[in-house]
Amino acid sequence: MCLILIYGIMKPSVFVDKSNFDYGEISRKKINIGNVIIENKGIFDLKIKNIESCCGLKVYLDNKKILKRGEKQKISFIYNSSEVSYGRFNKTITINTNDFVKKSIVIPVTGVVIEKKEKLSEF
Predict the structure, then answer these.
(1) What was the pLDDT predicted at 24?
(2) What is the distance, to the nearest Å, from the Cα of residue 116 to the centroid of all Cα atoms in its chain?
(3) Ordered structural domains, the chain, with CATH
(4) pTM
(5) Tell me, what DSSP letter sits at residue 82?
């Protein structure tokens, strides 16, 4: 029982700087980049097992998949609005780790694809 208590205190602990990501209004036919920062606030190593994303959202992670205590890692993602129609979109990124409390963290990624208005030249 003592080992379980100690391990529970000294476990890895995942922290993500954003609980969601909103691109806001974006123009069609653009490459839109976003990112979140993941941090290990625990004692033991935090292992990023894998990252899943919805179609239309590509995720990039540096080769570093094990974070020591206090280390941070940027997770970047790209939404290509040239492949979609106009309107609101809702996607998700799921980060799976070895944190016993938060094994999976789901981050909603939202925005609105709008038609870019051309400026009229003044005479």
Answers:
(1) 95
(2) 27
(3) 13-114 (2.60.40.10)
(4) 0.81
(5) G
Residue type, 121: S
pLDDT at 5: 45
17 compared with 1, residue with greater pLDDT: 17
In 28-71, the DSSP E strands lie at 31-40, 46-53, 57-61, 66-67
Interstrand relation of 21-27 and 46-53 (parallel, antiparallel or unpaired) = unpaired
* CA dihedral over 102, 104, 105, 108, signed as positive or negative: negative
Nearest to 21 by CA among 85, 79, 97, 72: 79
Which amino acid, 113? V
Which token pair is 1? 């029982």
CB atoms within 10 A of CB 93: 22
pLDDT (mean) for 51-67: 89
In tens, the pLDDT along 86-105 reads 899 999 999 999 999 999 99
Amino acid 35: pLDDT = 94
Q: Contact at 8 Å (CB) between 11 and 42?
A: yes
Give the closest residue to 36 by CA, choosing from 60, 54, 55.
60
